Amino acid sequence: MHASTAEHSLQQLYSEHHGWLNAWLRKRLGCAHNAADLAQDTFMRVLSKDSDLPAIREPRAYLSTIAHSLMVNFWRRQAIERAYLDALSLQPEHYAPSPEERELIMETLLAIDAMLLRLPPKVRQAFLWSQLDGLTYAVIAERLLVSERMVKKYMAQAMLHCLLLEQAG
Hints:
Elements: H1 3-29, H2 32-48, H3 59-89, H4 99-118, H5 121-133, H6 137-144, H7 148-168
Helix pairs in contact: 1-2, 1-3, 2-3, 4-7, 5-6, 5-7, 6-7
């Protein structure tokens, strides 16, 4: 598609549906500021895709699908931030990290969360039970209805993902 045609199509999509999308997000988020941010992020995502805008038959369905995905990510990030801040509030004040350290910790937690989401469900569950709950492989195997050997394979897969995450960082 010619650049000016794509630009015109995006402008038209934006002008015709931005207000609707913003209201749709505001209703779900209960916050005008976050809704405005996610509406902008949605159009930025549309801009970054190599899609043929004139070929979109249901623009509101298209936009709401993208916005919903962004909203789920927003809620996950909020939940992780709340959990981190709750854990931090239980620490003595002299252990409080600096704002820069907190930001690095949050980035790391979000990267770990994203890595865990990429794992198959049984691998993720085995890893979390082992690392967070301290369950033995035998107990995990029982809970997942698999062999202990399969749990070892799951753990190896999860550890490989952790190593790849560490190398990327």
